[in-house]
Amino acid sequence: MARATKTAHTPLDFMQRAIQLARRGAGFVQSNPMVGSILVNRQGKIVAESYHARFGGPHAERRILERAGRCLGGTLYVTLEPCGHTGKTPPCLDLILKSGVKKVVIGTLDPNPITHGKSVRALRRAGLTVDVGIAQADCDYLIRAFRKWITTQQPFVLAKVGMSLDGKITSAGAYHYITNQLALQRVHQLRQEMDIIMVGANTIIQDNPRLNTRLAQTRLHHPIKVILDSRLRTPPHSKALDERSIVVCLDSAPYYRKQALAKTGAEILIVPPNRQRGKMLFEQLNLSVVLAELGARGYTSILVEGGSYVFTTFINQQAIDEFYIFLAPRLFGAARLPITYALQYDVNFSHPVFEQLGDNMLIRGYVSYHKTR
Amino acid sequence: MARATKTAHTPLDFMQRAIQLARRGAGFVQSNPMVGSILVNRQGKIVAESYHARFGGPHAERRILERAGRCLGGTLYVTLEPCGHTGKTPPCLDLILKSGVKKVVIGTLDPNPITHGKSVRALRRAGLTVDVGIAQADCDYLIRAFRKWITTQQPFVLAKVGMSLDGKITSAGAYHYITNQLALQRVHQLRQEMDIIMVGANTIIQDNPRLNTRLAQTRLHHPIKVILDSRLRTPPHSKALDERSIVVCLDSAPYYRKQALAKTGAEILIVPPNRQRGKMLFEQLNLSVVLAELGARGYTSILVEGGSYVFTTFINQQAIDEFYIFLAPRLFGAARLPITYALQYDVNFSHPVFEQLGDNMLIRGYVSYHKTR
């Protein structure tokens, strides 16, 4: 493609800039959505930029309009439809109407069915020009977790796995990383964005990871840690256990283990087992209940980091929304640990995105489930 | 990247054109290498193009110089060092010296250790300017099969597999294609280039494929078919069997099966079993012997199309040089047929190349083997 020349920016350029800004709120705004906004004057110059920076703090539009003061005849770009209701903060709609901007360009409508489209109608009634749907796919992707949570009260589930080309998640040296440094950095960017990091008890027992975010930036967000552990096999001295962790188990887990783990400050969350066709799968947690419980606590997104048993359980309960698969260019053969055991569903990526990361490959996308024959 | 403007072509452009031409010989020149050549006059205009079109026919340089007549002061581009010896045809070197060209640009040197660099020295002694190594990696890739065959007398082995992201080569519908149409087309382009297509007896028994080349072009090359079949389980009525096929078996295969299969016109090639640490693996063919036998017949390249048992055998005998792995964005789980069974070696790609083919991904590259612990 030809290099962009230094001519006037297009609405798409402005919206992409607003998306960039929005992403700076990653890890700090939930259970609000990430939102970015810019103000462009009549000469087509950006006069102010802003983003929603922390939950409970001012919204992106408010921050920008307060800074810019009155901007007669300008255009406001915002990745998400502005709010028209009083929540933690007063509605942005009023501020826009008072600001003097003549046009509002919106990435995507508010996914909340109660408020969806209302602000657009109010702005138009007030005589402003409103464009909706600029860079819509990217703006939708930005709020995919919020969208699921606000419409289903369950968190969005992103499963991340690093594996060989033949789907093996451990190498001969068992706990070496299979994938490269670029892949590792992407994983920590995911942790920075997600409310919850979730692993199975086997990962805790074998690797004893901290499950924190390690990135070369000062403003770090560490997701809370959720350990799936039907029988409470997690050792109480595990590094991941603290006041910001939840251990999910069955009621049948030994009482003395519940007591020992509760002392670490971790919450013990008891859920029922999974039932299929009336048959109880005693060892398997009911993930619908797990997701509902976490959603009720205001968590909008979960990063599931495996291993095999956890991925198998999630797929068999159709509970993963999006996959991030990091592939290392290797073959390990059938003697190593696979990404999943036998599945009741085939998993298909609807519109996979491929990104080359040095000699590794990231394949990511939403997935659908198809009953195996 | 900026679009190439319509200025003078660079030597790299000329050599890439010569590589393009060379590839037109794919499937018809073996056991010679593919070679492409162009002649550029003093004004920097291409005045003739040529390629080696069929084994035993004139070489690329001869065809071009015969067509162009004398080209005083021009430059000859050729992907491979011109021959200086009389083989099936008289040496090209003499023709170049007589042609009037002042400069020769060569992609890569003759891999044959006996003639390597000799023509370059002869051209320089005669006062011509010679540049070597323009687009060398691409010119080397063009002759990778010839290079291996001329230096080891064994054919180059390219393994092709289409699979899910978790390394499964069959879907629930068993004999559906897992990968997409673009991947299938690439497979048939591979068949067009390779001397031999090789499969295991299981593939013949289960799928009964024709193993021919299906491409929308008139000049098709069909590789000869080699079936690896220790115990000669291949049914005599299989579509792949004819005078252009070889069935490889152990001496222990039943005599009546040998007779039945020989009647189809296929050659029955008997090889010893594989030995490891003195222990004979009775069912497993000794692939070194297979490759030596096929190399001795003048075949320079083999396309191995699996299944699981064949890939496992090839990897455990470190016999694959290059992999083409076509990935479909799906997960099938552990209950489906894997690309390999347990391996004695990890397989690492040295410099993997990633190509997106719609929603499929091709990962290709040379591989190295590392003993598993």
List the defining traits of the structure above.
homodimer, 373 residues, Dihydrofolate Reductase, subunit A, 2 domains, 10-stranded mixed sheet, 5-stranded mixed sheet, 11 helices, 27% helix, 27% strand
Description:
The structure is a homodimer of 373-residue chains. With 373 residues, the first copy, chain A, is of the alpha/beta class. The first copy, chain A, folds into two domains: 11-143, 3-Layer(aba) Sandwich (Cytidine Deaminase, domain 2); 153-371, Dihydrofolate Reductase, subunit A. Chain A has eleven helices and 18 strands. In chain A, strands 6, 7, 8, 9, 10, 13, 14, 16, 17 and 18 form a ten-stranded mixed sheet that branches. The longest helix of chain A is centred in the middle third of the chain and has 13 residues, at 181-193. The two termini of chain A are 45 Å apart.
How are the SSEs ordered, and which strands pair?
The structure is a homodimer of 373-residue chains.
Chain A lengths: L10 H12 L13 E5 L5 E6 L8 H9 L6 E6 L11 H8 L3 E6 L9 H8 L3 E4 L3 H7 L1 H9 L3 E9 L16 H13 L2 E5 H7 L16 E5 L16 E5 L5 H8 L4 E4 L2 E4 L2 E7 L1 H10 L4 E4 L3 H9 L5 E7 L1 E2 L13 E5 L3 E5 L2 E12 L2
Parallel strand pairs in A: 3-4, 4-5, 6-13, 6-14, 7-8, 7-13, 8-9, 9-10
Antiparallel strand pairs in A: 1-2, 1-3, 11-12, 14-18, 16-18, 17-18
